[in-house]
Design a protein that fits this description.
This protein is mostly helical. It has 18 helices and 4 strands. Helix 3 crosses helix 17 and helix 11 crosses helix 16.
């Protein structure tokens, strides 16, 4: 059923009377309240766990991390958790304000004065809503970068760099996002009941393109990437790549120190556009055998098909999400229950983006568990092709230098953490070291 025609069957007077008591309104508010309450509870558990262990370094790390570094990590985690509480409250307020508070309805009426064609009107409303929500969250981002990160000695981002990054990100989002948004709205309006299947094909192609283009064309807009220059290290990495049967565009060093002193490494790209990337801050802190072990871990994600499986799952979840959106978009009460009196493709899209997170939040532990499983598997791959002991040493250095808490709350970690807790991961690496000695 076309969206506009379906909406016409519900009288406006009935909307006004039934809107406050509609069961879907109540369901949305219930899940929004529950997800916010659980987030707050887990946040408090994490704070308490870190505070309880702040004054003593865990025995397993006593010889590698001193008390001052441990307390710095605790204080850093506590600062981030305080910011997290503000963030979760802001999320709830924005979700309510844009939906039952009438935010989407207000933006729609605001753009009606421009008298744009329907598709461009819808595109303008969605872009304005996204920009508005980003602007609302900007103060917290500024506080994290120039408040928390600076206070703990991590930030190297200047105000100029921050603004330039913001403008580049905005321009890139408009260049890539506006055509995609326009096409999806076009399909919603004119492709019939099965529009969501065509939209999924377009969205999948877009996702694959961005994944392919990111290492070579997108990431260099923000950072400088140079081939690994250290001759000894380069020879070790090339030998490891050959042992693992990995062909890529090479191993690159990124100027992460331009913005932060945090160190990291990651695998990116698909097909022949694959890259292994080390932050320059990581290269400066680790010895060659440790870097080789970290590289072996990243190669494990590729050789064990973690990247591919995550991409496939993302596409399948996109298919399910668009199918659900297709059903909701044709249901008149979906709009009226959430503060929109005039159904439209762009209103359906915005409502779906805002309403879905409270419902999907409770699947977060499943995603986190799957990611931790992949990390364990990549560690085992590294133990077979490099040295588990060196990887453990490298990780401890990263825990220390990145101020990662060594004593997270177990439930908070199980719910959120994409990587295993430090104590568990290092203990397992020590077992792997003995196994492969």
């Amino acid at each position: 059923m076309p969206i506009i025609a379906a909406a016409a069957k519900l009288p406006a007077a009935a909307v006004v009377i039934t809107f406050p008591m509609h069961w879907f309104t109540q369901l949305f508010l219930l899940f929004l309240l529950l997800s916010t309450a659980v987030r707050s509870w887990l946040n408090q558990r994490q704070r308490q766990a870190v505070l309880d262990h702040r004054d003593a370094v865990p025995a397993a790390f006593a010889g590698q991390i001193d008390l001052a570094a441990h307390q710095k990590a605790a204080d850093y985690t506590l600062s981030l958790s305080r910011l997290g509480r503000l963030d979760m409250l802001l999320d709830a307020v924005v979700a309510m304000g844009m939906t039952i508070g009438g935010g989407i309805q207000w933006l729609d009426r605001l753009w009606q004065a421009a008298q744009l064609p329907s598709l461009w009107h819808g595109t303008a409303v969605v872009i304005t809503a996204v920009l508005l929500m980003s602007a609302i969250g900007l103060p917290l981002s500024l506080y994290r970068t120039f408040g928390i990160e600076a206070r703990f000695g991590f930030n190297r981002t200047t105000w100029v760099t921050f603004v330039v990054d913001l403008l580049k990100g905005l321009a890139l989002s408009l260049v890539l996002g506006v055509p995609l948004l326009y096409v999806i709205l076009l399909l919603m309006e004119r492709a019939g009941d099965g529009w969501w299947l065509y939209a999924w094909v377009i969205w999948s192609a877009f996702t694959l393109f961005v994944t392919w283009a990111f290492p070579t064309f997108i990431a260099p807009l923000f950072n400088k990437f140079t081939p690994l220059s250290d001759e000894t290290l380069r020879q070790r990495t090339e030998a490891l790549l050959e042992r693992c049967g990995f062909a890529s565009k090479g191993v690159f060093v990124m100027d992460g120190s331009k913005r932060s002193v945090h160190g990291n490494a990651y695998f990116t790209g698909v097909g022949r556009n694959k890259r292994i990337v080390f932050f320059d801050t990581l290269i400066e802190r680790l010895q060659a055998p440790e870097i080789e072990a970290v590289l072996a871990h990243e190669l494990g994600h590729f050789r064990l098909h973690h990247v591919r499986s995550r991409l496939v799952l993302s596409l399948l979840m996109g298919l399910g999400g668009l199918a659900l959106l297709g059903a909701l978009a044709a249901w008149p009460e979906f709009y009226h229950a959430l503060g929109v009196m005039q159904p439209s493709p762009h209103a359906a899209l915005l409502l779906f983006m805002l309403v879905l997170p409270p419902f999907t939040y409770f699947f977060t532990p499943v995603s986190a568990w799957w990611s931790r499983k992949h990390e364990f598997e990549a560690d085992e791959f590294a133990a077979r092709h490099a040295n588990a002991g060196e990887l453990a040493v490298a990780l401890v250095k990263l825990y220390r230098d990145n101020a990662t808490t060594l004593t997270p709350d177990a439930l908070h970690s199980a719910f959120y953490d994409s990587h295993p807790p430090a104590l568990i991961r290092i203990a397992r690496l020590q077992q792997l070291r003995l196994k492969h000695a």
